[in-house]
């Protein structure tokens, strides 16, 4: 690997010959770009070596399809994984630049929304670290979800043009353009042998442009790629439109094609949004399948051997069209008979489910498929016909199975059930936590489990310790290396050895010192960004994630209101000072989530400006949550809020990141919380709330709707929402008040008292620093099984048939 002088020389050369700049004229942004281009060259050397040894080994290749890859910043991560971090740090210092200033210039790659995209980023890191021949496949969104600002307490969405200047990490491949047909109609015909031969006619073309973003495994041996596709219009206008003199319409069609990769996940409340989103999903799978077949046929003429050489993992239902596109290619282009094509498709594809809420399962109107993907609609009808015929033959005494298993929802507007398509077309279906996987089988799709129990499995999520400890918490990483040796970075099970140090007061004090250092760093960041002074000695209680009713930020802020009322109305004094930190984005069209953000900010304004709370209680909403902000918040947190309604969160991954950074968890029996509690010890986890089964019982009986009227503490807290205390407009939070008192589907009030008591125990324990940080150490020690390396090993052996 290169040394300091080589990095310096290469950086200066990149400035001159790639950016046309002298060192003396370069801004911090220029230095970042030059250093990134320098590091990319070293990545490429390893990438070509990786391609060579994977080809020689005839490695089975994994293609991971996801609509999101939430990568964050890449410079630090690449430097660490390549082993160049110290040399690059020194090189910048010798050139007269501060390393922190330069790394801060990198924008977060805005290719995802939340947990789904961050999980995908962890997974591709682990695949490279484990030397798996793999590539991620997604869309190169020009604009991310949105930049969030808070104005007058409200979320305001602004364009997130993360790619306004070309990312130094991306390499465009315009020589590998892909022509993707869409629209048109089907003409019925027969081939020369009299077989049905449908002709897809009059389609328009979208051009897919591949871009490669290189993913370095730890140690730099394996460098895989994340392939991102952008959309372009074909070189020519629609001649028929142009010849009619409608030049503007011809131009608008080109613009519409190019808009496909403009922005991540448009709002889908209106028809145009639905059409764009479905087009994005098809565009991703069509581009990816072209890559897959091109790479496979370059090596083999036997298309029936595809499942031996290729595995495809569908990250949620968004890429489920890969099943249909593969069938189209095999049947229409390779002329395989249906049964052979279906056997290849099922053996190649596998599906990860990420939701437990039936209303969140993706469906698409048949009319939209008829307009955009007429041939694919034909294939889905045929898949459904053959599948249901097989079910009817095997279970003739269970006719009720057919409607529940059908790929089509027939009530109201006829729609295609994408989860059903993904299940039928895959050889394995996995959940992402033990409870989640069981609830998929029992509650979400029980009839699919009944007919194909062998398909269903579990792969509990994990996160990469390279990003979430080594990079985000350098002091903790140094401590772990000193105690365990350097091997913990790729063998997180070594954390178990920390348990024997739990009674060593010196070690516990060091954990406390590391936490204080990280809290002080976060305090400086908050002061610089929001002008607010925060006491680092207070307890930091954090809930940072997408804003949603089921994640129950509302339960958290209701408890804050309860604490505030206790201080100002009853003269209570908190056992320990406390800072409540919130961060997260609400979907632009999600009115209730946006109102919850406004409530948090109004409560923060009231609490923070009341002299009676000074030194006891403060509340902050940190705007524009993203990976780089999470890397500051997570290591600084004392208490991690994982308080979703039991039975709603598939897994969660922030719960893992917080725990492995020494935060204790207050949480429900939901998602991976259950496995984390088992791993760290029940005495080191603050459990509260009803179980998933109890939630279902309360919903069925409606008993959760009586709590407001029967509990005076809850009634006082909820009434404060419409008292004018937090906003002079008493009607502002009336929708939240009505939701809590008339329906409360996510059972905020049912769990309120249990949550309140658990929070009281938290503050009592935090007042004893030695015992608290001993618990923190035991949390870190128990997190070995939550590495994404362990997760990927499970996928490889149990689903993909890959040895690692």
From TrEMBL:
Cofactor(s) the record lists: pyridoxal 5'-phosphate
Catalysed reactions, semicolon-separated: [(1->4)-alpha-D-glucosyl](n) + phosphate = [(1->4)-alpha-D-glucosyl](n-1) + alpha-D-glucose 1-phosphate
Gene Ontology MF annotations: 1,4-alpha-oligoglucan phosphorylase activity
Family annotation (CDD domains): GT35_Glycogen_Phosphorylase (cd04300)
Pfam families per UniProt: Phosphorylase
The UniProt record lists the keyword Nucleotide-binding: no
EC numbers on record: 2.4.1.1
Keyword Glycosyltransferase: yes
InterPro entries: Glycg_phsphrylas (IPR011833), Glyco_trans_35 (IPR000811), Pyridoxal_P_attach_site (IPR035090)
Keywords: Carbohydrate metabolism, Glycosyltransferase, Pyridoxal phosphate, Transferase
Endpoints of the signal sequence: none
PANTHER family per UniProt: GLYCOGEN PHOSPHORYLASE, GLYCOGEN PHOSPHORYLASE, LIVER FORM
Family designation: Belongs to the glycogen phosphorylase family.
Role noted for this protein: Allosteric enzyme that catalyzes the rate-limiting step in glycogen catabolism, the phosphorolytic cleavage of glycogen to produce glucose-1-phosphate, and plays a central role in maintaining cellular and organismal glucose homeostasis.
Protein name, entry field: Alpha-1,4 glucan phosphorylase
Source species of the chain: Serratia aquatilis
């Amino acid at each position: 690997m290169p040394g300091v002088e080589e990095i310096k020389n290469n950086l200066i050369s990149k400035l001159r010959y790639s950016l046309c700049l002298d060192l003396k004229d370069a801004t911090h942004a220029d230095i970042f770009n030059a250093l990134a281009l320098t590091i990319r060259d070293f990545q490429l050397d390893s990438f070509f070596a990786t391609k060579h040894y994977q080809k020689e080994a005839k490695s089975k290749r994994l293609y991971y399809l996801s609509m999101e890859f939430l990568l964050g910043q890449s410079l630090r991560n690449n430097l660490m994984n390549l082993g160049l971090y110290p040399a690059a740090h020194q090189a910048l210092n010798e050139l007269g630049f501060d390393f922190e200033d330069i790394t801060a210039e990198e924008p977060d790659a805005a290719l995802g929304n939340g947990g789904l995209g961050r999980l995908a980023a962890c997974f591709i890191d682990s695949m490279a670290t484990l030397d798996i021949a793999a590539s991620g496949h997604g869309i190169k969104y020009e604009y991310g979800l949105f930049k969030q600002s808070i104005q007058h307490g409200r979320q305001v969405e602004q364009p997130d043009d993360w790619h306004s200047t070309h990312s130094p990490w991306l390499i465009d491949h315009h020589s590998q353009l892909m022509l993707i047909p869409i629209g048109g109609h089907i003409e019925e015909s027969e081939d020369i042998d009299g077989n049905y031969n449908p002709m897809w006619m009059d389609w328009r073309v979208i051009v897919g442009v591949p871009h490669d973003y290189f993913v370095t495994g730890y140690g730099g041996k394996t460098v895989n790629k994340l392939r991102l596709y952008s959309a372009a219009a074909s070189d020519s206008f629609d001649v028929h439109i142009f010849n009619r003199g409608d030049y503007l319409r011809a131009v608008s069609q080109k613009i519409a094609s190019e808009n496909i990769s403009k922005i991540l996940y448009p709002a889908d409340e209106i028809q145009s949004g639905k059409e764009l989103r479905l087009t994005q999903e098809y565009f991703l799978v069509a581009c990816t399948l072209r890559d897959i077949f091109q790479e496979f046929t370059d090596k083999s003429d036997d298309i029936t051997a595809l499942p031996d050489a290729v595995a495809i993992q569908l990250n949620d239902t968004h890429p489920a069209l890969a099943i249909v596109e593969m069938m189209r290619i095999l049947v229409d282009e390779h002329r395989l008979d249906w049964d052979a094509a279906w056997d290849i498709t099922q053996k190649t594809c596998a599906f990860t489910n990420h939701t437990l809420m039936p209303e969140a399962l993706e469906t698409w109107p048949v009319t939209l498929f008829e307009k955009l993907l007429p041939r694919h609609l034909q294939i889905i009808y045929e898949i459904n016909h053959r599948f249901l015929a097989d079910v009817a033959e095997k279970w003739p005494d269970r006719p009720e199975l057919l409607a529940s298993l059908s790929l089509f929802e027939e009530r109201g507007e006829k729609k295609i059930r994408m989860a059903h398509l993904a299940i039928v077309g895959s050889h394995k279906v996995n959940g992402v936590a033990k409870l989640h996987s069981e609830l998929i089988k029992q509650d979400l799709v029980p009839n699919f489990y009944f007919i194909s129990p062998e398909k269903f499995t579990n792969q509990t999520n994990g996160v990469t310790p390279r990003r979430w400890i080594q990079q985000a918490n350098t002091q903790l990483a140094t401590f772990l290396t000193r105690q365990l040796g350097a091997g913990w970075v790729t063998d997180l099970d070594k954390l178990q050895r920390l348990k024997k140090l739990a009674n060593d007061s010196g070690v516990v004090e060091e954990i406390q010192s590391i936490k204080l250092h990280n809290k002080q760093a976060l305090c400086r960041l908050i002061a610089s960004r929001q002008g607010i002074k925060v006491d680092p000695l207070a307890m930091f209680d954090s809930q940072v994630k997408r804003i949603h009713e089921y994640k129950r930020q509302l339960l958290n802020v209701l408890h804050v209101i309860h604490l505030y009322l206790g201080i100002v109305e009853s003269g209570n004094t908190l056992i320990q000072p406390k800072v409540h930190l919130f961060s997260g984005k609400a979907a632009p069209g999600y009115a209730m989530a946006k109102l919850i953000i406004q409530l948090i900010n109004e409560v923060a304004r009231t609490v923070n400006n009341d002299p009676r709370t000074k030194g006891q209680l403060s509340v902050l909403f940190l705007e524009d949550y993203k990976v780089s902000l999470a890397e500051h918040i997570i290591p600084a947190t004392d208490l991690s809020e994982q308080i979703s309604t039991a039975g709603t969160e598939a897994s969660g991954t922030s719960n893992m990141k917080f725990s492995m950074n020494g935060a204790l968890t207050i949480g429900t029996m939901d998602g991976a919380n259950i496995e984390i509690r088992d791993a760290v010890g029940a005495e080191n986890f603050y459990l509260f709330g009803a179980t998933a089964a109890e939630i279902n019982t309360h919903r069925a009986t409606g008993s959760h709707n009586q709590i407001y009227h029967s509990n005076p503490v809850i009634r006082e807290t909820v009434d404060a929402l419409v008292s004018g205390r937090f906003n002079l407009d008493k009607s502002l939070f009336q929708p939240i008040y009505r939701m809590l008192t008339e329906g409360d589907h996510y059972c905020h009030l049912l769990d309120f008292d249990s949550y309140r008591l658990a929070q009281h125990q938290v503050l009592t324990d935090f007042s004893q620093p030695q015992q608290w940080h001993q618990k923190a150490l035991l949390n870190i020690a128990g997190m070995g099984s939550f590495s994404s390396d362990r997760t990927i090993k499970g996928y490889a052996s149990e689903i993909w048939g890959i040895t690692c």
